[in-house]
Amino acid sequence: xxxxxxxxxxxxxxxxxxxxxxxxxxxxxxxxxxxxxxxxxxxxxxxxxxxxxxxxxxxxxxxxxxxxxxxxxxxxxxxxxxxxxxxxxxxxxxxxxxxxxxxxxxxxxxxxxxxxxxxxxxxxxxxxxxxxxxxxxxxxxxxxxxxxxxxxxxxxxxxxxxxxxxxxxxxxxxxxxxxxxxxxxxxxxxxxxxxxxxxxxxxxxxxxxxxxxxxxxxxxxxxxxxxxxxxxxxxxxxxxxxxxxxxxxxxxxxxxxxxxxxxxxxxxxxxxxxxxxxxxxxxxxxxxxxxxxxxxxxxxxxxxxxxxxxxxxxxxxxxxxxxxxxxxxxxxxxxxxxxxxxxxxxxxxxxxxxxxxxxxxxxxxxx
Length: 367
Ligand code: SF4
Prior knowledge:
Blueprint: H1 16-25, H2 31-42, H3 56-65, E1 72-78, E2 85-90, E3 103-111, E4 114-118, E5 122-124, E6 139-142, H4 145-160, H5 163-168, E7 179-182, H6 192-202, E8 215-219, H7 223-232, E9 238-241, H8 247-253, H9 256-259, H10 262-276, E10 280-286, H11 294-304, E11 310-316, H12 330-342, E12 346-349
Parallel strand pairs: 4-7, 7-8, 8-9, 9-10, 10-11, 11-12
Antiparallel strand pairs: 1-2, 2-3, 3-4, 5-6
Helix pairs in contact: 1-2, 4-6, 6-7, 11-12
The chain binds iron/sulfur cluster.
């Protein structure tokens, strides 16, 4: 295995299984894989290989093959509205591909006993949803698993360096990221293999140790990617960005609907909900005059009837210049929510995070 790791592999791309294979190839005990994961992702060491318990031959081989610079937060923007912090993370790059240097945006969201990190899975996005600032960028490239993991590592390092920020929010100074949502830049299921690899690293109990049930993968309805992800992680929570329940209307907002029709998406999620008895999160952004009428609420309730465990999150649109779309007023949002309640749906009104720092869903675009 050691000889088969591509030269473009970053240290952070490696899961426990990869490191165990490396140990096998170098005739070192597999227990060292655990130490390496712990030093890197739990103890947040600057040099995870500087450890006397590791055999020197293993360390020499690793140093010869991999570089490691801890990912750093280059810039932060703090929301004065809800405490969200947008992090611009300088991604580690493989020494063989220096031209691939890039930054990724992630958003730290403190809430009650949780510290949620919203991570990016791509630079830009190919899906072109009309209401989405990221979609207007087009796709620059997919992120590798290690570049997704780097966002969590950088956020944990930032938290470790900011005990005052944690204390001001009632957290212990040792608090780290508890939840990860794939709702930042990109369509995660357009990059499903890297997302699945990243989940393997993030859930490692010796490392960042984020439980699978606290990871949510959001999708615009990319069914091919969903199958790839579920083949590896059948119980990972899924959130569907729905926003419209009629095929033609949704295709006008979200072109991916032409490729993966809404009926097929609903049927697949209904199967998943029944097989795994797991909730499906339905994200519904409200646009004034577009999808916020009483008829739209009734149609949404009918659409969700096939998903008995659906949890609907209503999110009033957070406008950005040039979007051409508006948010509904509060009474309209309340009436929409009440109609869903009366129809028996579990529904939460959510607020876009960090509306003053362009950290809201669909606004991550290096502003
Ligand atoms: S809403 Fe999601 S899928 Fe659509 S363009 Fe934006 S990032 Fe891509």
